[in-house]
């Protein structure tokens, strides 16, 4: 690279950089202490700015040379998320056009040390639930503006796609099928960023076979909490690779991912059947996920006290027996729906039909409730977006979403179902309740994702929407109390439950969540984000603050102690 005119000699720059790094290590030496990294008390929304001299900090950020830009006004969108319950206004929003923008910004904040409370949060499509992608008086990075190189597709024996961490999965789907390919594992909702789901797990009805999305990644490009850009994989920088996958954004920001692909089908046979007996429902689900030649997608959900259920579904599904289906009464009943799908291409229709009939013959569902549909592969995967558009039209999308996602061990799922679906819940009018098993024996156990100890466990997701200003059963307070009752039962019954998309506010709760993985998690934090700059909204670690007067006082005390020892 050609040096700029009038720039200082390279050796002098290197020497100054070494001096600066030495000073930063000196100023931030206390931060490696875990007491600074973690709070033993619940973290609350601060009422005053976490840093002084904000005008100086703003000026220093404005001085950064970026391909994109920083905005300091009209930032309310960065203080919102899908949960719509937490609103923490940042000091700035970075709109990066390159990975260098992200690296430079984080490096600058890291080099400011502990004299500022500035933190950094990566925000994808804003689908967090508890303010996890927010940074109070910090810097929020708008990952969707990252203009990394276009998607690159490798077509061969082991096909893959290189995609930006800010790319939406729905865009990745559309581009992949143009090449006759598709990612193997999905989430139910595709308008999420690649980096966002990989920082959690990415679980849907394909996870029983392929594992979550974090199990289907070959390589990552990550910007750590020091601003370093690192390429990592299972063979290169493996500790960072596995730490970042499911790491809740604590060790680095995913700027690029190499995702495993497989041949894409064109069509999907989409099926729903109902059960009244949870034992039979769960038995059939567990049978299907353990079968070698099963369906390609297996989920389920709970319906309590819904009127005209099958008739409501007829806009999307055709009953196998319309007469019997019309006579089925769902009112006042607790029902369990098995939702399954088989992928195929048009020339395979006859074989697919025979295979589906054979698989269905092994199940114990209520025969009159068999509903079938055939849709395109893309339409099936993007099915939730249809509901989103309808809710947006009614003004019911941007409401509070007090979701609760749990992982329940197979051995305790019946205890859970008896109490929660038998006593705690009286209806499911506030939103769907998903429930389906997965087998983690096929998963990679080196990632940061935390699961129950048993190989087979159930994802149970309470996807509630709260009506604004309501004081009834569809109001936020009632749903939150209901969630608390469920969590309290899990704890008192010692179910061995783990939260998915976890949310805790004390160090002890986080330690309990991670269990034996906690020490490794803390060690990785001190290695890759030693100042606890990244993802403050997760409330796992808290950035330490030290003023220059504190540092001077400590140095004076050190000198006094040294003189006494002479």
Characterization of the model:
The protein is α+β, with helices and mostly antiparallel strands and 566 residues long. The protein has 19 helices and 19 strands. The protein has helices at 10-27, 34-37, 54-62, 99-112, 169-178, 194-198, 207-210, 238-244, 278-290, 309-313, 322-326, 349-360, 377-381, 383-393, 413-424, 476-492, 507-514, 518-528, 548-564; strands at residues 69-71, 92-95, 120-123, 139-142, 152-154, 160-164, 181-183, 217-224, 229-233, 252-263, 267-275, 297-304, 318-319, 334-344, 371-376, 404-409, 433-439, 456-462, 498-499. The strands form 3 sheets. Strands 13-15-11-14-12-17-18-16-19 form a 9-stranded antiparallel sheet. Strands 5, 6, 7, 8, 9 and 10 form a 6-stranded antiparallel sheet that branches. A 4-stranded mixed sheet has the order 1-2-4-3, covered by helices on one side. A hairpin with a 5-residue loop joins strand 5 (152-154) and strand 6 (160-164). Helix 15 (413-424) runs antiparallel to helix 16. The longest helix has 18 residues, at 10-27. The radius of gyration is 26 Å and the shape is globular.
The global form is: globular
| Helix residue percentage | 25-40%
Biggest sheet record: 9 strands, antiparallel
Radius of gyration: 26 Å
- What distance separates the N and C termini? 53 Å
């Amino acid at each position: 690279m050609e040096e700029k005119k009038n720039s200082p000699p390279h050796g002098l720059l290197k020497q100054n950089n070494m001096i600066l790094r030495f000073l930063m290590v000196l100023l931030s030496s206390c931060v490696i202490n875990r007491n600074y990294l973690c709070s033993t008390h619940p973290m609350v929304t601060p009422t005053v700015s976490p840093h002084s001299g904000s005008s100086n900090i703003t000026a220093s950020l404005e001085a950064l040379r970026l391909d994109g830009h920083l905005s300091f006004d009209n930032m309310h969108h960065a203080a919102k998320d899908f949960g719509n319950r937490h609103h923490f206004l940042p000091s700035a929003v970075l709109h990066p056009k390159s990975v260098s923008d992200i690296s430079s910004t984080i490096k600058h904040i890291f080099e400011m040390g502990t004299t500022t409370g500035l933190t950094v949060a990566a925000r994808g499509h804003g689908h967090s639930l508890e303010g996890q992608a927010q940074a109070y008086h910090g810097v929020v990075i708008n990952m969707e503006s990252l203009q990394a190189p276009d998607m690159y597709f490798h077509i061969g024996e082991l096909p893959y796609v290189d995609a930006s961490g800010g790319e939406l999965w729905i865009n990745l789907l559309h581009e992949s099928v143009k090449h006759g390919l598709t990612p193997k594992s999905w989430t139910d909702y595709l308008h999420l960023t690649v980096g966002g789901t990989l920082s959690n797990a990415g679980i849907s009805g394909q996870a029983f076979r392929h594992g979550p999305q974090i199990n289907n990644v070959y390589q990552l490009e990550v910007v750590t909490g020091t601003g370093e850009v690192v390429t990592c994989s299972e063979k290169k920088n493996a500790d960072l690779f596995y730490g970042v996958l499911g790491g809740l954004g604590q060790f680095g920001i995913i700027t690029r991912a190499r995702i495993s692909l497989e041949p894409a089908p064109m069509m999907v046979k989409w099926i729903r059947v109902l059960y009244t007996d949870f034992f039979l429902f769960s038995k059939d689900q567990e049978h299907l996920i353990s079968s070698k030649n099963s369906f390609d997608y297996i989920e389920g959900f709970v319906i309590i006290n819904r009127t005209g259920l099958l008739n409501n579904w007829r806009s999307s599904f055709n009953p196998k027996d319309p007469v019997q289906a019309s006579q089925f009464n769902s009112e006042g009943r607790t029902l369990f729906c098995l939702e399954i799908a088989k992928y195929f291409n048009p020339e395979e229709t006859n074989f697919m039909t025979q295979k589906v009939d054979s698989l269905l013959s092994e199940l114990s569902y209520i025969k009159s409730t068999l509903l079938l549909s055939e849709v395109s592969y893309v339409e099936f995967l993007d099915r939730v977006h249809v509901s989103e558009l309808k809710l947006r039209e009614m003004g019911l999308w941007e409401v509070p979403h007090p979701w609760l996602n749990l992982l329940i061990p197979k051995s305790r799922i019946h205890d859970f179902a008896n109490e929660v679906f038998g006593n705690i819940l009286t209806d499911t009018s506030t939103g769907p309740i998903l429930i389906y098993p997965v087998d983690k024996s096929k998963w990679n156990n080196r990632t940061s994702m935390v699961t129950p100890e048993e190989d087979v466990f159930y994802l149970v997701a309470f996807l509630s929407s709260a009506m604004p200003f309501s004081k009834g059963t569809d109001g936020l307070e009632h749903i939150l109390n209901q969630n608390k009752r469920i969590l309290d039962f899990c704890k008192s019954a010692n179910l061995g439950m783990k939260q998915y998309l976890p949310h805790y506010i004390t160090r002890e709760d986080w330690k309990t969540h991670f269990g034996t993985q906690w020490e490794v998690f803390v060690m990785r934090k001190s290695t890759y984000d030693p100042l606890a700059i990244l993802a403050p909204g997760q409330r796992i670690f808290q950035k330490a603050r030290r003023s220059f007067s504190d540092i001077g006082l400590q140095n004076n005390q050190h000198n006094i102690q040294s003189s006494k020892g002479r």
